[in-house]
Amino acid sequence: MDSFSSDQALRDFVTGLPKAELHLHIEGTLEPEMIFELARRNGVKLAYASEQALRDAYAFTDLQSFLDLYYAGASVLLTERDFHDMALAYLERVHADARHVEIMFDPQTHTDRGVAIETVFAGLASAMRQAREQWGLGGYLILSFLRHLSEADAFAVLEQALPLRDQYADLWVAIGLDSSERGNPPEKFARVYARCRELGFRLVAHAGEEGPPAYVRDALDLLRVERIDHGVRSEEDPRLLRRLIEQRTPLTVCPLSNLKLRVVDELEQHNLARLLRQGLCVTVNSDDPAYFGGYLADNYVEAARSLSLGRRELGALARNSIEASFLPDGKKKPLQEELDRYLAANSPSR
Ligand code: ADE
Ligand code: ZN
Question: Could you tell me the pTM of the whole model?
Answer without folding.
Answer: 0.98
